[in-house]
Specification:
Oligomer: heterodimer
Helix content of chain B: 40-55%
Strand content of chain B: under 5%
CATH architecture of chain A: 7 Propeller
Radius of gyration of chain A: 24 Å
Shape of chain A: globular
Helix content of chain A: under 10%
CATH superfamily of chain A: YVTN repeat-like/Quinoprotein amine dehydrogenase
Distance between the termini of chain A: 40 Å
Protein name (chain A): Serine/threonine-protein phosphatase 2A 55 kDa regulatory subunit B
GO cellular component, one term (chain A): protein phosphatase type 2A complex
CATH class of chain A: Mainly Beta
Structural class of chain A: mainly beta
Strand order of the largest sheet of chain A: 1-12-11-10-9
Number of domains of chain A: 1
Shape of chain B: globular
Mean pLDDT of chain B: 49
InterPro entries (chain A): PP2A_PR55 (IPR000009), PP2A_PR55_CS (IPR018067), WD40/YVTN_repeat-like_dom_sf (IPR015943), WD40_repeat_dom_sf (IPR036322), WD40_rpt (IPR001680)
Keywords (chain A): Repeat, WD repeat
Number of strands of chain A: 33
Structural class of chain B: mainly alpha
Low-confidence stretches of chain A: 1-22
GO molecular function (chain A): protein phosphatase regulator activity
Number of helices of chain A: 2
Number of domains of chain B: 1
Number of strands of chain B: 0
């Protein structure tokens, strides 16, 4: 499936609407910059991947510097039906991870609940002309009319971006895949489902190694699942995985083939004063991310973001409250299932700021050095063009000031689960249901 | 999430016990709230299914919550003789305290009552609730949660009353179930053994009351600071047309 590259102009608030009318399948389910930040990929509930490319800076249009425009769109996964279990397999893209660029083409992994695919995205801007046996429309020429031989030449054509599936890694997961992570050796990657983690070689699709298996022999004893997993950014033998009980395990693949025993175990002791029936649910980790430096890991649970030093297992070094005002609403959030929402978290390029989403289309940023934080909103109604986004504030109780919003007015259907931060610049991508917002630094 | 008859009865009991007008607007007692949470959790374990495999993480978390409630109910039931923690609680505990999730793995627990919590409300005087048949320990719905349901016809029916379901649990022969599922390995569960007819909308006051006792006090500080300060040079957000 190809798409002529075209610029999507006049992006309001740099917000990019998918061309189709709003449908449940347009809900964005993952957002990821590539390693240079030139490309931004989104996956949606309908199994589509849309890749945006940053415009080259030009002297003529200084303030159009670095706009992201649609580069390629393709259908990555289709809905499937598991006949054995009589169940549908959703085509929703759970995660996209880019491979580092090694030649002119771009490679990414995209996964739904069961199958990982390696996609190659490449440009074609020349085409051969002057075939001997075919004419320009591709029809076979009558051999009797061919009197001379010629050498086909490559002539420029309109730029075409093609996405082709190069590998399909299927049938390795009984449970739902929640994470994929490319190893720093660029030869292997891992895929994690609720109970198992598998290691793949990019070249081999019919085999994978199982490196973590927490499935109990008796499923009646199942009390904990894997929620996220990631390779260390530099050490290709090291990875972490998080659990629904709020723990993180760091494993070393050199220790044994099956990493059943962790090398490190990160868990914060429970605060007895905060204990409730919902304590375990809100401690479940929804995302885990290594810092770019590899020294820290960040985890997101329902109410907080925590930063852990790899050298200290007994508690995090930093804890940030994302929306603590929800603590008194946990029963209602349990009733409407919001308590199970899985928020992601991201580092900025220098590991000095962390960002995560919340409800009401709010997202939060925490500066680790100054300890300042800010709440912003991804919404067109509240932003004027060329203005700096105004910080938002949630009023917890008592008098509500003019610009504040009270907890009871929050819209829990507008949740920001997926965000991404450019690897080196202050450009962020925020997915608000089926809208994508891209914000960047003010240009002076 | 009570059956309507049940709640009224409980409130009536409260009124009778405490001699005061409880009314529907008052916050239910701790044990009632806890029971409601348990019922809500059981309903939740049923809701996500049909065409797509249910979310295993969510199911595990809900099941763990159910187990926590059950364990606390057990503790309260056992230690009730020593010091009831609030007035009017003891008889209600007997009413709602259940061992419905007895696990065969741990062996049949002594005194494993299966109360009748269906729409028919409470039958007869309270002590009759504790008919125990130790030979018919209900198989843990936990196990049936994760294994595949074999009879296809169960998939469609929803509206069984809770007492029918508990009877089903009671009478299932554990070992035969395990034989049936021993070679199956799948991540979704037999929903229909625990169907409930108690799918009513949320009762007023439940979550308010539950939130107030279940959660710690919200942190006094505001959740964000409004001045960007040094954050300016880190992220200044531009909105362009």
């Amino acid at each position: 499936q190809t798409l002529d590259k075209k610029a999507v102009t006049s992006l309001i608030l740099k917000e990019i609407h998918f061309p189709k009318p709003k449908a449940p399948t347009d809900i964005i389910s993952t957002v990821e910059f590539n390693h240079t930040g030139e490309l931004l990929a989104t996956g949606d509930k309908g199994g589509r991947v849309v890749i945006f490319q940053r415009e080259q800076e030009s002297k003529n249009q200084v303030h159009r510097r670095g706009e992201y425009n649609v580069y390629s769109t393709f259908q990555s996964h289709e809905p499937e039906f598991d006949y054995l279990k009589s169940l549908e397999i959703e085509e929703k893209i759970n995660k996209i991870r880019w491979l580092p660029q090694q030649n002119a083409a771009y490679f990414l992994l995209s996964t739904n609940d069961k199958t990982v695919k390696l996609w190659k995205v490449s440009e074609r801007d020349k085409r051969p002309e002057g075939y001997n046996l075919k004419d320009e429309e591709g029809r076979l020429r009558d051999p009797a009319t061919i009197t001379t031989l010629r050498v086909p030449v490559l002539r420029p054509m309109d730029l075409m971006v093609e996405a082709t599936p190069r590998r399909v890694f299927a049938n390795a997961h009984t449970y739902h895949i929640n994470s994929i992570s490319v190893n720093s050796d660029y030869e292997t990657y891992m895929s994690a489902d609720d109970l198992r983690i598998n290691l793949w070689n990019f070249e081999i699709t019919n085999q994978s190694f199982n490196i973590v298996d927490i499935k109990p022999a008796n499923m009646e004893e199942l009390t904990e699942v894997i929620t996220a997993a990631e390779f260390h950014p530099h050490h290709c033998n090291t990875f972490v995985y998080s659990s629904s009980k709020g723990t993180i395990r760091l494993c070393d693949m050199r220790a044994s083939a099956l990493c059943d025993r962790h090398t490190k175990f990160f868990e914060e002791p429970e605060d007895p004063s905060n204990r409730s029936f919902f304590s375990e649910i809100i401690s479940s980790i929804s995302d885990v991310k290594f810092s770019h430096s590899g020294r820290y890991i960040m985890t997101r649970d329902y109410l907080t973001v925590k930063v852990w030093d790899l050298n200290m297992e007994n508690r995090p070094i930093e804890t940030y409250q994302v929306h603590d005002y929800l603590r008194s609403k946990l029963c209602s959030l349990y009733e409407n299932d919001c308590i199970f929402d899985k928020f992601e978290c991201v580092w900025n390029g220098s590991d000095s700021v962390i960002m995560t989403g919340s409800y009401n289309n709010f997202f939060r940023m925490f500066d680790r050095n100054t300890k300042r934080d800010v709440t912003l909103e991804a919404s067109r109604e509240n932003s004027k063009p060329r203005a700096i986004l105004k910080p938002r504030k949630v009023c917890v109780g008592g008098k509500r000031r003019k610009d504040e919003i009270s907890v009871d007015s929050l819209d829990f259907s507008k949740k920001i689960l997926h965000t991404a931060w450019h690897p080196s610049e202050n450009i962020i991508a925020v997915a608000a249901t089926n809208n994508l917002y891209i914000f960047q630094d003010k240009v002076n | 999430m009570f059956a309507r008859g049940l709640k009224r009865k409980c409130v009536d009991q409260e009124e009778v016990e405490e001699g005061a007008l409880a009314g529907f607007s008052s916050i239910p007692s701790y044990s009632l709230q806890r029971q409601s949470l348990l019922d809500m959790s059981l309903v939740k374990l049923q809701l996500c299914h049909m065409l797509v495999e249910p979310n295993l993480c969510r199911s595990v978390l809900i099941a763990n919550t159910v187990r926590q409630i059950q364990e606390e109910m057990t503790r309260d039931g056992v230690g009730r003789g020593t010091a009831p923690q609030s007035t009017g609680r003891a008889p209600l505990d007997r009413l709602v305290s259940t061992e419905i999730l007895c696990r065969t793995v741990r062996g049949p627990e002594a005194g494993c009552p299966v109360p009748d919590l269906g729409d028919g409300a409470i039958q007869g005087p309270l002590p009759e609730l504790y008919t125990v048949d130790s030979a018919e320990v209900p198989r843990s719905p936990q196990s049936s949660l994760w294994e595949m349901d074999s009879p296809r016809e169960n998939r469609g029916s929803f509206q069984k009353s809770l007492d029918q379901i508990f009877e089903t649990l009671e009478h299932k022969n554990p070992s035969s179930m395990e034989d049936l599922f021993s070679d199956m390995d799948s991540s979704y569960y037999d929903l229909d053994t625990m169907l409930t007819g108690m799918m009513s909308s949320s009762k007023p006051g439940l979550c308010d009351g539950l939130d107030s006792f279940a959660a710690a006090a919200p942190s006094p500080g505001s959740s964000c600071k409004s001045d960007l300060g040094e954050l300016d040079h880190v992220v200044e957000i531009l909105v362009e047309t």
